[in-house]
Amino acid sequence: MTFHVYYSANASRHPARPFHPERPHRTHAALAGLADIDLPGLSFVQATHASVDAARTLHDTDYIDRLLEPIGQRPGEKKTYRVLDGGDTHQAPDSLDAALEGLGSLQDAVDRTMSGEITGALVATRPAGHHATRNQAMGFCFISQAALAAEHARSKHGARVAVLDFDVHHGNGTEDLLWDQRDVFFASTHSATLWPLTGSGESKGAHGQILNVPLQPLTGGREMRSAWTRIFSRLRKFSPDIIIVSAGFDAHMADPISNLCWKAEDFDWLARQLGEVGRDVCGGRIVSFLEGGYSLPVLYDEVPAYIAGLMGADYQRISNAGSRFGRIDGTPYVPGTFTALTHPILKFQYRKAFQRQWIQDQDNGALLYTPPDFVKLNSREPLEEIAAAASERGVLDIRDIVRLERLCG
Ligand SMILES: [Zn+2]
To answer: pLDDT by residue (tens digit) across 345-360?
Structure first.
């Protein structure tokens, strides 16, 4: 059994805004979590690009052309990033390219899964995609990779495709792109009371091929299991050749912006059920794409548990500290918020100003970690200690940040 995990060689090419929960650290946490288990068959593969024309297959051409305009050319626009939808989504110079890496990796995973070369795959890149509609960027998303990969599987392989979405937010973009696609089944569970407030049970697609199951807040695993039992029954009848999953981990009770309160055992149940149905209906061909999930400890814990669950396997934690996926480097945040002040003592310097705290790389002034508001730091010691330990080691490792956010999140 070979399972591909796709990662970006430079997770920082779509930088976050400082103190924002959607940040490159999310993919570091998910990948470090996967590197720190003893699951046989996992193979880490560098992400591969899709052509921009692949995005035009379901998105409006004008919209893609607007995304291709160089950043900083429009009146009043910053050189470092462009705000796309009322402030929620920002586009830096390489953001579209990063989104195309996610799509290219999904396409590659679909091709290899359809040919039988691999059993399945997870694409652990950023930005996510399931909120991007035909003509609009929304909710940190630019292009709807899961829907575009479904179109790729349909047009290139003649496959019947199912797209399943368990992110806490409705996959409104996926739904928009797949609305008229008769041969693609799309099913989603999501909170009925969270943005974007779409995805009612009445929203069924042009051919009745869409199944939305909104869930009420705080309903936890009981409602979720009953919803997914219903979805799996429809899935068996639909009998796909391949399943593409929009895997968001923000329905977890520890997620800072969630309200469904799913527990680890609920995610485990979902993954194991999904793996079993997948083996029954399509030889286990399941390709997953990382959507939301804003708690770093949840991503570190649950992404590996999800993959093992899909495989029907068990695993032990191992220590891989210092491995390539833990290293926080580059420029994870768009520059310009804080002036870089170099300091000669430590490579990784703790800094504090205006009630904000952060860790900065003294070699190039880049911010490497800024705790979002939901991380409650009552003193300066925890970040100071992390910076000092990282300076001694020469690497700022995501595992230290995961530990910090587990204690203070
Ligand atoms: Zn989400």
So the answer is: 788 989 888 888 999 9
- Active-site pick, 131, 152, 190, 252: 131
Model pLDDT for residues 284-306, shown as the tens digit of each residue: 999 999 999 999 999 999 999 99
Going from the Cα of 201 to the center of ligand 1, the distance in angstroms, rounded, reads: 19
- Whether the upstream peptide bond of residue 196 has omega within 30° of 0, thus cis, is yes
131 is catalytic: yes
Structure tokens at 181: 């696609």
* Pair 199, 249: CB distance under 8 Å: no
Closest CA to 129 of 161, 72, 63, 175: 175
Cα distance between the two ends of the chain: 36
Q: How far from chain centre, in Å, is Cα 184?
A: 22
The CATH number that applies at residue 166 is 3.40.800.20
**Distance between CA 150 and CA 290 in Å, rounded?**
15
Res. 336: pLDDT tops 80: no
What is the Å distance from ligand 1's center to 169 Cα?
4
Q: Which structural domain, as residue segments, surrounds residue 352?
A: 348-408
Domain count, the chain: 2
Distance 351 CA to ligand 1 centre (A): 31
- Do 106 and 234 lie in one domain? The reply is yes
